[in-house]
Task: structure prediction
Amino acid sequence: MNLSVLVGHKISDDTARNLDAYLCTNGFRKEEAKYRHVRRDIDLVIYYEPAPEYDVSWQYTPEEVIWFVPMTEIVIQSRETEEAHRLNYEMAKQVARLINGVIYDHMARASYNAEGIPFERYGLGERLPGYGSGREFM
Result:
Protein backbone atom coordinates (compact mmCIF):
# COMPACT_ATOMS: atom_id res chain seq x y z
CA MET A 1 0.00 0.00 0.00
CA ASN A 2 1.33 3.43 -0.90
CA LEU A 3 0.61 6.81 0.64
CA SER A 4 2.27 9.99 -0.57
CA VAL A 5 2.89 13.21 1.30
CA LEU A 6 2.84 16.03 -1.26
CA VAL A 7 4.00 19.63 -1.18
CA GLY A 8 3.61 22.23 -3.93
CA HIS A 9 7.24 23.35 -3.58
CA LYS A 10 10.64 21.77 -3.05
CA ILE A 11 11.29 21.36 0.66
CA SER A 12 14.28 23.18 2.10
CA ASP A 13 17.50 21.48 3.14
CA ASP A 14 16.68 22.29 6.78
CA THR A 15 13.29 20.62 6.49
CA ALA A 16 14.88 17.57 4.83
CA ARG A 17 17.44 17.34 7.67
CA ASN A 18 14.66 17.62 10.27
CA LEU A 19 12.73 14.84 8.53
CA ASP A 20 15.87 12.68 8.39
CA ALA A 21 16.51 13.20 12.11
CA TYR A 22 12.86 12.46 12.95
CA LEU A 23 12.82 9.20 10.97
CA CYS A 24 16.18 8.02 12.33
CA THR A 25 15.05 8.60 15.94
CA ASN A 26 11.63 6.99 15.40
CA GLY A 27 12.38 3.48 14.27
CA PHE A 28 13.85 3.90 10.79
CA ARG A 29 17.34 3.39 9.43
CA LYS A 30 18.65 5.10 6.33
CA GLU A 31 19.58 2.81 3.43
CA GLU A 32 20.96 4.76 0.47
CA ALA A 33 17.96 6.69 -0.89
CA LYS A 34 15.29 5.30 1.46
CA TYR A 35 14.39 4.72 5.08
CA ARG A 36 13.38 1.24 6.26
CA HIS A 37 11.66 0.39 9.54
CA VAL A 38 14.11 -1.32 11.90
CA ARG A 39 11.70 -4.10 12.90
CA ARG A 40 11.98 -6.98 10.44
CA ASP A 41 8.33 -7.94 10.91
CA ILE A 42 7.17 -4.50 9.71
CA ASP A 43 7.75 -3.99 5.99
CA LEU A 44 7.63 -0.20 5.81
CA VAL A 45 9.78 1.99 3.55
CA ILE A 46 9.87 5.77 3.12
CA TYR A 47 11.56 7.49 0.19
CA TYR A 48 11.59 10.67 -1.87
CA GLU A 49 10.11 10.37 -5.33
CA PRO A 50 12.47 12.18 -7.71
CA ALA A 51 10.90 14.95 -9.80
CA PRO A 52 7.20 14.31 -9.07
CA GLU A 53 6.32 17.37 -11.13
CA TYR A 54 7.15 15.31 -14.24
CA ASP A 55 5.16 12.23 -13.19
CA VAL A 56 2.29 11.92 -15.68
CA SER A 57 0.07 10.20 -13.11
CA TRP A 58 -0.43 13.56 -11.35
CA GLN A 59 -1.72 15.00 -14.63
CA TYR A 60 -4.56 12.47 -14.51
CA THR A 61 -5.42 12.97 -10.85
CA PRO A 62 -8.61 15.07 -10.62
CA GLU A 63 -8.08 18.66 -9.49
CA GLU A 64 -10.57 18.22 -6.69
CA VAL A 65 -8.30 15.55 -5.16
CA ILE A 66 -4.89 17.21 -5.69
CA TRP A 67 -5.22 20.86 -6.68
CA PHE A 68 -1.51 21.60 -7.18
CA VAL A 69 1.45 20.13 -9.01
CA PRO A 70 3.53 18.25 -6.43
CA MET A 71 7.13 19.45 -6.33
CA THR A 72 7.99 17.22 -3.35
CA GLU A 73 6.62 13.70 -2.94
CA ILE A 74 7.53 11.44 -0.06
CA VAL A 75 6.21 7.91 -0.57
CA ILE A 76 5.41 5.68 2.38
CA GLN A 77 5.08 2.07 1.31
CA SER A 78 3.87 -0.83 3.45
CA ARG A 79 3.44 -4.50 2.67
CA GLU A 80 2.16 -7.71 4.18
CA THR A 81 0.74 -6.94 7.63
CA GLU A 82 -2.09 -4.87 9.06
CA GLU A 83 0.38 -3.46 11.60
CA ALA A 84 2.60 -2.16 8.78
CA HIS A 85 -0.42 -0.60 7.06
CA ARG A 86 -1.58 1.12 10.26
CA LEU A 87 1.93 2.44 10.88
CA ASN A 88 1.98 3.68 7.27
CA TYR A 89 -1.05 5.89 7.97
CA GLU A 90 0.44 7.16 11.24
CA MET A 91 3.81 7.97 9.64
CA ALA A 92 2.07 9.81 6.79
CA LYS A 93 0.42 12.12 9.34
CA GLN A 94 3.74 12.70 11.10
CA VAL A 95 5.58 13.45 7.85
CA ALA A 96 2.76 15.74 6.69
CA ARG A 97 3.03 17.69 9.95
CA LEU A 98 6.81 18.00 9.61
CA ILE A 99 6.78 19.26 6.02
CA ASN A 100 3.34 20.93 5.98
CA GLY A 101 2.14 18.50 3.31
CA VAL A 102 -1.02 16.90 1.98
CA ILE A 103 -1.51 13.14 2.32
CA TYR A 104 -2.67 11.30 -0.79
CA ASP A 105 -4.02 7.77 -0.42
CA HIS A 106 -3.46 6.00 -3.75
CA MET A 107 -5.93 3.20 -2.91
CA ALA A 108 -8.80 5.43 -1.74
CA ARG A 109 -7.91 8.11 -4.33
CA ALA A 110 -8.43 10.81 -1.72
CA SER A 111 -6.40 13.53 -0.01
CA TYR A 112 -6.19 14.41 3.67
CA ASN A 113 -4.63 17.03 5.91
CA ALA A 114 -1.97 16.19 8.49
CA GLU A 115 -4.66 15.21 11.01
CA GLY A 116 -6.21 12.68 8.63
CA ILE A 117 -9.25 14.81 7.85
CA PRO A 118 -10.38 14.54 4.22
CA PHE A 119 -10.38 17.66 2.12
CA GLU A 120 -13.82 18.59 0.83
CA ARG A 121 -13.82 18.56 -2.94
CA TYR A 122 -14.16 22.26 -3.78
CA GLY A 123 -17.22 22.80 -1.64
CA LEU A 124 -19.27 20.10 -3.35
CA GLY A 125 -20.11 18.55 0.00
CA GLU A 126 -19.04 15.17 -1.32
CA ARG A 127 -18.49 12.52 1.33
CA LEU A 128 -14.89 11.35 1.09
CA PRO A 129 -13.44 8.07 2.30
CA GLY A 130 -12.29 8.18 5.92
CA TYR A 131 -8.59 8.21 6.69
CA GLY A 132 -7.23 4.68 6.65
CA SER A 133 -9.95 3.39 4.34
CA GLY A 134 -7.36 2.53 1.68
CA ARG A 135 -6.66 -0.60 3.73
CA GLU A 136 -10.14 -1.83 2.75
CA PHE A 137 -8.97 -2.16 -0.86
CA MET A 138 -6.14 -4.54 0.06
